[in-house]
Amino acid sequence: MKKTILFALISLLVIGCNNAPKDAISYVEIPNAKAIDSVMQTFIDRECYPFIYTRLEDKNGEIIYEKTVKNNRLLSNDTIDGNTYIRVWSMSKIITICIALDLMEDGLLSLNDPVVKYIPEFSNLQVATAADSSVLVENEWNSIDSTRKDPCPLLLIPNDSIMTILHLLNHQAGFYYSTTNIPCLDSMLADQNVAGAENSQDLIHRLAKLPLIQHSGSKYYYGTNTTVLGLVAERATGKTLAQLVKERITEPMQITGIGYDLPEDEKMLPRFTGKDSLLRIAELQELDIFGQDVPDYVAEHELHLGGEGMICTTDGYCDFLRMLLNNGELNGHRFLNESTIADLTAPHTLLENPYGHNGYNLWVSGDSSLLKGHGDAGLWIGGGYEGTHFWIDTNRQFVGTIMTQMFWVYDASYGYSKDNRIRGEIYRPWTKTPYKD
Known about the structure:
- By secondary structure, the chain is an alpha+beta fold.
- It has a domain at about 75-365: DD-peptidase/beta-lactamase superfamily (Beta-lactamase), CATH 3.40.710.10.
- The chain has 14 helices and 16 strands.
- The protein has a seven-stranded antiparallel beta sheet with strand order 2-1-16-15-14-13-12, with helices on both faces.
- The model is unreliable at about 1-25 (pLDDT under 50).
């Protein structure tokens, strides 16, 4: 959907129209666009990222800020805008979760349903522990500490609880990525090469061979839980996740630019890394999230990873975010009930974190974000593996995205502050709070 770009000068025109009541203004004015531009450009000048594309839209889809900055050494011939396809990785999760919540509204799923009701192949999943039976997560075997003794070889024991759909929503089921810092556990996932599976059945077959990193329901641990949730949705409906996204989200809400397959007339941006202190194109298998392959977005392939596998234009993804902002409705179609949106953002996990709480894989910022000049309290926030980022501001009624394609930032002390610094600058005129590390 094409959107009209609104800049600060439009606000002057509106103010000048005496017949226009103040409450008729349906957008937020961004008064410090040049300052935001400058913050973004600094990340490019320091070669932290190959490009940054930031876009803000009000609840009606009007663009209130938009800017692309890029490294011309790497992307001199590439146009990057709202129609550019981006690998959004974990920004796929909130879409899959909303599909599952929609199926719950229809009575096809329930929070307390056992996962094996839909995926009986998982009936014999075991839990990996250290040789003394200590649970890896609870004893922080996965922490980066060169003095810690390697827990390998691992002991496999039965899962002591029934894995439910609620555990998948809350990242408590026990699935993980190959980034645990436990070599023998990471290598097991890498050996299965889950992103190279031919289809969902093949993926289930591969995951069934792997242990869990913890007993289901015991603790929050981020991993492929949402991918398994997507498999549950497929089994419950007899449809692929791609079909569910199309039938329940994109078609009824008139959204384009969200899916799993790259259109024939489009191309993907390169994968970049700064791992060697030099910003460059990443080599094959250099992204470590699955240990080997990553999604390829080829239409002939039938694998749809609900937690990592989507590609989206920023234009399309902002439309989806606006559905959440508008309490489950977009373009005259109600997708989710308002009570479901409330549950999606309610405190579920990470409740003692000073920076906020986690809903169903949707972070809600707390007062610390405001005090540190990282934005504001009450923002709904998410992001993805290659540096993609989004948030929803229900107070000021707009959505924001900060897009790039970069999985390893060499200048960690500054580079990984990208989202907080840019978002903080956007909010500075309102919060009057300077950025703090």
